[in-house]
Design brief:
Helix content is about 30%, strand content about 15%. It contains 13 helices and 15 strands. The chain has a 7-stranded mixed beta sheet, with helices on both faces. It has a two-stranded antiparallel ribbon with strand order 1-2.
């Protein structure tokens, strides 16, 4: 629940006996009004009308068991699954993803992504920021969504610019670096209780509380003469109140407002995918999620970390993933949103081409992995790059996470990756140091 903290000026204006409780989106002691004020001070206005949904397969998905199958390789490499044809001639994917096979014309598979910039295990910051960073330390670069929040400054009233369902760490400095906590994502709870009015508080009563706050501020201005700064605070407090008094944000998260047929299209495991579609349709620029109901935090290995149970785990994960992702792509397309919404799917690495000594698993493999991109006005219905006969590494020069992020920044969100922001020392940093885009997508 969003509470005007006792330590904030707004709470002191309400008096010592109570707080103005108007919903969720609090970050520690930071109120939503504070967050909105910080964001407006920091973020230049942009013109982008597009959005990105990033699906993070936490743990490192096995490329050769999903989108880069090698049916002619020895059994210890090709594994237990077989490829099936898609609706694009010459493109095959895993047999456990038949629904995705019917919409292959609406996505591109990048088979030559390398994650060789780091040597340790799971490293989500590499795909979220484009830079290697130990998950045990604060990030030295802001995440993709935080950068979008900073540069786009999209004027979406009543909605956050960056929503994360992926269990990422949102401690100050952890995901935003020097951009500040104003650009942390909103991480909703399962029931989204924070966007509802407090029990027993009617819309009229909540409006009365807002009017009371305005009256107290006006009295304070008359006394201290600080009209300019107080008026600014009033404006941001009003925006915070709007997020709760308006149904826009609450409705955007509520999949129960969807017809039963649409909810069935996504399936039980696809609720976050459906919420992501509702959010971008409402105007949220960036939504990130994991392809599993209960996301792990960055510091833990996710469900796609299949060292000893690769094939058993995939028999459960892939059908759910297949239904959820194909539903999202189909739904966006049918609503005429696919050109304005890019969907990107990837993990932090691939997995070893050769099945390990346990006989049932695949270990970490940084040399090569895959990415899937749909929509956003990018070219689809193709395979980009190729790997060696055993899926060990790329043939030719590989692409990196930075290349894909550069493409999303500039060609989808309209953010020049050569733009700069100031670090903690006041020195400019590029959004991305390596800004070559994936040319086949353009």
């Amino acid at each position: 629940m969003l509470m005007i903290s006792e330590s904030t000026p707004a709470s002191r204006r309400l008096g010592r006996r109570g707080f103005l409780q108007v919903g969720a989106l609090g970050f520690g002691g930071l109120t939503l009004a504070n967050l909105l004020q910080l964001r407006a001070q920091a973020a230049p206005q942009g013109r982008s009308q597009k959005s990105v949904i990033m699906v993070y397969l936490h743990g490192g998905p096995p490329h050769m068991d999903m989108f880069d199958m090698k049916p002619d390789a020895p059994a210890e490499i090709r594994g237990e699954f077989r490829p099936v044809p898609t609706n694009v001639r010459g493109i095959e994917i895993c047999e456990l993803m038949p629904k995705l096979a019917t919409v292959a014309d609406k996505f591109s598979i990048i088979r030559n992504l390398t994650f060789n910039e780091y040597l340790e295990g799971h490293n989500p910051p590499l795909v979220y920021t484009g830079y290697y960073n130990s998950t045990a330390k604060p990030s030295h670069r802001p995440t993709f969504g935080s950068v979008a929040s900073h540069f786009i400054g999209k004027n979406v009233r009543g909605l956050p610019p960056y929503v994360a369902f992926d269990g990422m760490d949102t401690k100050p400095g952890r995901s935003t670096h020097s951009l500040g906590v104003a650009h942390n994502p909103y991480c909703p709870s399962d029931k989204n209780s924070g966007l509802a009015r407090p029990d027993g508080v009617s819309p009229l009563r909540l409006e009365d509380r807002g009017q009371l706050l305005t009256s107290l501020d006006r009295m304070r201005r008359d006394l201290d003469g600080s009209g300019g700064s107080m008026q600014a605070t009033d404006a941001f407090a009003s925006l915070a109140l709007e997020m709760v008094t308006s149904s826009k944000a609450r409705d955007a998260f509520d999949i129960n407002l969807e017809p039963q047929s649409v909810r069935e299209l996504y399936g039980d495991a696809g609720s976050q995918f459906l919420q992501a579609r509702r959010l971008v349709e409402a105007g949220v620029p960036v939504v990130t999620l994991t392809a599993n109901k209960e996301p792990d935090t960055w510091d833990k290995a996710g469900p796609w970390d299949t060292h000893g149970n690769n094939f058993k785990t995939l028999r459960k994960l892939l059908p759910e993933f297949d239904q959820s992702l194909s539903a999202l792509i189909t739904d966006l397309s049918q609503r005429g949103l696919l050109d304005d919404v890019a969907v990107v799917v990837w993990g932090e690495m691939g997995r070893t081409p050769r099945i390990n000594g346990n006989g049932a698993g695949r270990d970490h493999w940084n040399e090569v992995g895959f990415g899937l991109v749909s929509g956003g006005g990018l070219k689809t219905g193709q395979v980009i790059g190729q790997t060696t006969s055993g899926a060990e590494r790329s043939v030719g020069t590989p692409y990196t996470p930075s290349n894909l992020l550069a493409t999303l920044y500039e060609n989808v969100l309209g953010i020049n990756p050569a733009s700069t922001y100031l670090n903690f020392a006041g020195r400019p940093l590029y959004v991305l140091d390596h800004r070559e885009k994936i040319r086949e997508l353009l």
